[in-house]
Design goal:
Pfam families: Methylase_S. Belongs to the type-I restriction system S methylase family. One of its GO terms (molecular function) is DNA binding. This is Type I restriction-modification system specificity subunit S. With 382 residues, the chain is α+β, with helices and mostly antiparallel strands. The protein has three domains: 142 residues, DNA methylase specificity domains (Adenine-n6-DNA-methyltransferase TaqI, Chain A, domain 2, Alpha-Beta Complex); 76 residues; 134 residues, Adenine-n6-DNA-methyltransferase TaqI, Chain A, domain 2. It contains nine helices and 20 strands.
């Protein structure tokens, strides 16, 4: 059978019916566990089921709400046990392939394509800022479906890119843990404290006027909050009138609702009111600053137990009691952690490039413009 034009609803089930009893403890995957343009799901928790979509291994999760969909939050479920049913946000659309005609991972790549995403975005309805994709638009989405053997060739090729991205993420996680162990060792030996303002300059963001925003890449990319740098820098808007701006080497972090996610930036970004920045006063303190900021966020989260909405002020950051390390300790940690952190940043940069490469090739692969008939033989013999 050759390639044919199909509607998604004819070859996949949207939001399949699965059984979970109310209050049954099951694995939960929240929206925050999905990283933009990343196949792998980052995290989960075990909670009592009280509602939400249900899914199993082999399903694809697509964010249906703005701005998560525009930011590329689509992931493939493969972290569950056999026959395990998990649940997640009501803001997910679950896609399940008819395996007789559609490969499960090929469906994932269809759902990550810009063509699918644009059709979904244009179907959104609702009030500004809370618009949602309509299931009918997803069901009626049309695409070219090649034979299963061709689908598997495309999946094999794209999986090689995603596997490298996942490996880099694991390496970075391990490197960060090694740095954390050394930081904690120095911290335990340090009894003195100093205000964070003696270690870094702290600047809170300021949102530009709404009429200066655009999504066309004009002006300065805007980081309005943690959602714009979770799992990498993914600004959803640009502004022609930035108010507060980062410098290369700064750390950005979330200060409203989602706090933390300390992230090093290497370009100039505007920061909105949901974002702050920290700039080390000495380059030798740069690596220490990262872990001090992470500890600060843990402290603020514990201190605000019971608060529905977190909002941390600059004064609270500036007066946070950080370890007052000696110059010798600062030098030792810098010499130890700097090469490891630099490797982390290089891996992050490579992942950005691999993601761009995948997004460049994806539409041509889905359209059948690239012949992969011998790809497995070539790659296995490389």
């Amino acid at each position: 059978m050759g390639t044919k034009l199909v509607k998604l609803g004819d070859v996949a089930v949207i939001n399949p019916r699965l059984r979970l009893e109310k209050n049954e403890v099951a694995r939960k995957i929240p929206m925050e566990a999905l990283t933009p343009f990343q196949k792998k799901i980052d995290s989960y928790s075990f909670e009592k089921y009280s509602g939400g979509v249900k899914f199993q291994n082999g399903d694809t999760l697509v964010a249906r709400i703005t701005p998560s969909l525009e930011n590329g939050k689509t992931s493939y479920v493969d972290i569950l046990e056999s026959n395990e049913v998990a649940f997640g946000s009501t803001e997910f659309i679950v896609l399940r392939a008819d395996k007789n005609v559609l490969d499960e991972e090929y469906l994932y790549y269809i759902a990550t394509s810009d063509d699918f995403r644009q059709v979904a975005i244009q179907s959104m309805t609702g009030t500004s800022g809370r618009q949602r994709v309509q299931n009918e638009a997803v069901s009626s989405y049309e695409f070219k479906l090649p034979p299963l053997d061709v689908q598997k060739q495309v999946v094999f090729f794209l999986n090689s890119i995603d596997a490298k991205i996942a490996l880099n993420l694991q390496i970075n996680d391990n490197l960060l843990k090694v740095c954390r162990l050394q930081f904690d060792k120095f911290k335990q030996a340090c009894s003195a404290t100093t205000e964070l303002s003696n270690i870094a300059t702290l600047i809170m963001g300021q949102s530009p006027k709404g009429d200066t925003y655009n999504q066309n890449g004009e002006g300065t990319p805007l980081l309005n909050g943690a959602a714009d740098f979770r799992g990498g820098i993914n600004p959803s808007k640009y502004t022609s009138d930035p108010k507060k701006v980062t410098e290369p080497g700064d750390y950005v972090f979330g200060v409203r609702a989602t706090i933390g996610l300390t992230t090093k930036v290497f370009n100039r970004y505007a920061i909105g009111r949901g974002t702050g920045l920290a700039r080390a006063l000495s380059y030798k303190s740069d690596e220490l600053l990262y872990f001090i900021m992470e500890d600060a966020f843990s402290y603020f989260a514990r201190a605000s137990t019971g608060s529905v909405y977190l909002n941390i002020s600059r004064r609270e950051f500036e007066t946070y009691a950080a370890p007052d390390f000696s110059n010798i300790t600062i030098k030792k940690f810098h010499e130890f952690a700097s090469p490891l952190m630099q490797q982390i940043y290089q891996n992050q940069k490579q992942n950005e490039e691999l993601t761009q490469l995948r997004e460049l090739l994806l539409p041509r692969l889905l359209a059948g413009d690239i012949d992969l008939s011998n790809i497995e033989t070539v790659m296995n013999n490389a």
